[in-house]
């Protein structure tokens, strides 16, 4: 097998570079000479998360699809701490992302089952207000490309960055109560009726029909024709005018005489 690099990260003072390779090894290099210093062994699957400590240049965190989270001393090439993301009754959960807190005393990880894992010192009570499983209802939704090759959300035909803030759902796509929806940036001050998503029935890959979030706008917004923002309204108006101009140009081109018959009108 030809090794491939899946992730790369510099340490805090840029003296070392750590690369994750698809043979499950982490390699520590001297960033000035390019010399290989250490092979870090421990992961059993590909690693896509490498995070350096915010102020300790010795510390590097790695996490991967095997559910393992390691904290390494890269100057010595040794393992400082190890966590395994075991989920009761479901095996392990692949770790997709990790970040240190600014003070370096905590780090948070997200996994494939919608869990937010917080490691550190102190009491966990401040974090008990969040649900166990958290996904945005737009996660893993298919995308398409329009005639200009721009990316659009397949369901709403909107550019992803112009879509309203998504709803929080569990792993099955069921929306969380309104008190959790206010935790989503952009929905902090919404009225309760605007925090209730539209639901519909969709078929899963197993053929099972489940109830899931299918829309982002409320009935009130649809009836009143409200725009998410003034800027969104201007963008839509400009797009509409551009589409009309293109349609008019195509229409005039199609009405021009063919095979040189007649005299074309001067534009």
UniProtKB/TrEMBL annotation:
WD repeat boundaries on the chain: 1-39, 40-82
User: Segment Disordered: which positions?
Assistant: 241-267
Bias class Polar residues marks the residues at: 251-261
Name the PANTHER family for this protein.
Answer: BROMODOMAIN AND WD REPEAT-CONTAINING PROTEIN 1, WD REPEAT DOMAIN 9
Could you provide one GO biological process annotation from this protein's UniProt record? regulation of cell shape
Instruction: Indicate whether Repeat appears among the record's keywords.
Output: yes
The UniProt transmembrane annotation reads none
A GO CC term assigned to this protein in UniProt: nucleus
This chain's protein is named BRWD1 protein
Specify whether NAD is a keyword of the entry: no
Q: Tell me the keywords, alphabetical order.
A: Repeat, WD repeat
Q: Which organism's genome codes for this protein?
A: Trogon melanurus
């Amino acid at each position: 097998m030809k090794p491939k690099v899946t992730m790369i990260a510099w340490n805090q003072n840029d003296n070392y570079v750590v690369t994750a390779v698809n043979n499950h090894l982490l390699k520590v290099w001297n960033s000035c000479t390019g010399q290989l210093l250490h092979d870090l062994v421990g992961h059993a699957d590909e690693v896509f998360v490498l995070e350096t400590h915010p102020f300790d240049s010795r510390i590097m965190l790695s996490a991967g699809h095997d559910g393992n989270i390691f904290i390494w001393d890269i100057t010595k090439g040794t393992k400082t701490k190890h966590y395994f993301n075991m989920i009761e009754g479901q095996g392990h959960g692949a770790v997709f992302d990790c970040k240190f807190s600014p003070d370096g005393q905590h780090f948070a990880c997200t996994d494939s089952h919608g869990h937010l894992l917080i490691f550190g010192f102190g009491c966990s009570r401040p974090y008990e207000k969040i649900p166990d499983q958290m996904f945005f209802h737009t996660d893993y939704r298919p995308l398409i490309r329009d005639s200009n090759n721009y990316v659009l959300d397949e369901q709403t035909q909107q550019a992803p960055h112009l879509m309203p803030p998504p709803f929080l759902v569990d792993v099955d796509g069921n929306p969380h109560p309104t008190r959790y929806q206010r935790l989503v940036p952009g929905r902090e001050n919404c009225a309760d009726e605007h925090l209730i998503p539209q639901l519909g029935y969709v078929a899963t890959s197993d053929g099972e029909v489940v109830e899931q979030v299918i829309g982002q706008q409320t009935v009130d917004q649809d009836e009143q024709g409200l725009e998410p923002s003034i800027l969104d309204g201007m963008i839509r108006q400009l797009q509409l005018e551009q589409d009309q101009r293109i349609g008019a140009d195509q229409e005039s081109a199609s009405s021009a005489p063919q095979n040189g018959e007649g005299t074309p009108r001067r534009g």
